[in-house]
Amino acid sequence: MSMHTELRLAYQENLYRAKALYQQRQWRESFRYLERAHILGQHYAIAHTRVHIWMFKVAWHRGDVLEMIGQGIRIIGGFIGSLIGKVPVGNSGGADVSAFAVMPIPDDLREILIKDEKSWQAIKKVPNKGKA
After folding, report:
1. What's the rounded Cα separation, in Å, for the pair 7 and 38?
2. Domain map of the chain by residue range?
3. What Pfam families does the annotation carry (predicted)?
4. What is the pTM of this model?
5. Contact at 8 Å (CB) between 100 and 88?
6. Closest CA to 109 of 58, 44, 55, 33
């Protein structure tokens, strides 16, 4: 199953912004867009893994050892989790939160995710608890 067009475009846009900010050495802002891309892409193994690789790169430049370790684990775990359909819905992907924590999905991202069949099948099981 491939990503719905609107989801793919939103994922790519957030990843593009993260990469642009990364090039400008704006690590915190870059990571924020990576978190959004993570929420959008976590149900697709390649997209999910790509975000964790970029999160690792940001952590490397920040010298954040704990984040690097967390991302190293998530690169493998996230790929497998996406393949078998076991990802924590809404999780922002950073090592500052449990890799297993279900989190509220920001309303703007939820509106995009519900249009994608694979994402919708996962998120409809978890009530949204408000704005993230």
Report:
1. 12
2. 5-123
3. DUF3703 (PF12487)
4. 0.92
5. yes
6. 33
Distance of CA 21 to the CA centre of its chain: 17
Structure-block tokens of residue 93: 């992907």
Query: Could you read off the pLDDT of 94-106 as tens digits, one per residue?
Result: 999 999 999 999 9
For 10, counting Cβ atoms within 10 Å of its Cβ (0-12 exposed, 13-18 middle, 19+ buried), the class is buried
Written as six digits, the tokens of 13 are: 């846009």
Give residue for tokens 């920001």: 106
Residue 34 has a CB neighbour count (10 Å cut-off) of 28
Task: Mark out the alpha helices in the chain (DSSP H runs).
Answer: 5-23, 27-41, 45-62, 65-84, 107-113, 117-123
